Amino acid sequence: MLKNKNKLTEDLKKYEQKKEALDIKKNKSDVPERGVETMFRVALKNHMTLSNIADTKANLLPKLDNPSNDYLIIPTLIFIIFTVASIILSILATRPNVTQGKFTKEDVANKKVNLLFFGNFLQIIKVISF
Questions:
Q1: Which 8-state DSSP code applies to residue 110?
Q2: How far apart are CA 116 and CA 124, in angstroms?
Q3: Smallest Cα–Cα separation from 104: which of 87, 120, 82?
């Protein structure tokens, strides 16, 4: 009988420990994990850094209004010209070549058409079949 009583107390202790562990897990799920907190912290830091950069750039323009800062006009114009030129060139470089999907065997032989383009897929069958 003493053995049964000892076994019951041990089982009761194990049950209490499991219950405490489950309670801890339950309470832990209510609190955000560290990964989520870290993600928000990093996002906030990046946002603050980008805002700081934007503020710094915005504070450069009023300096051009001051007559004593005439030496900044030429570098600013050069900077603006090259910035606009790079924007235009990047747009031209990334423009897609839109085809009408009509080509001949000569176009394929001269490599004037992209056979991997989805719009040309149907025409491949027509060109091959003739």
A1: T
A2: 10
A3: 120
Between the CA of residue 92 and those of 37, 51, 78, 130, what are the distances in Å?
Answer: 42, 30, 21, 36
Which amino acid, one-letter code, is at 122?
A: L
Residue labelled with tokens 């946002």: 47
pLDDT digits (tens, 9 = 90+) for 33-90: 778 888 889 999 999 999 988 888 777 767 667 778 788 889 889 999 999 999 999 9
Q: What does R_g of the chain's alpha carbons equal in angstroms?
A: 35
Cα distance between residue 115 and residue 123, in whole Å: 9
pLDDT at 118: 60
| Report field, pTM of the whole predicted structure over 0.70 | no
* Distant-in-sequence, close-in-space partners of 118: CB < 8 Å, separation ≥ 6: none
* Cα(16)–Cα(101) distance, integer angstroms: 73
pLDDT band at 98; cut points 50, 70, 90: low
The single residue listed with the structure tokens 């990334």 is 94
Distance between CA 83 and CA 91 in Å, rounded?
12
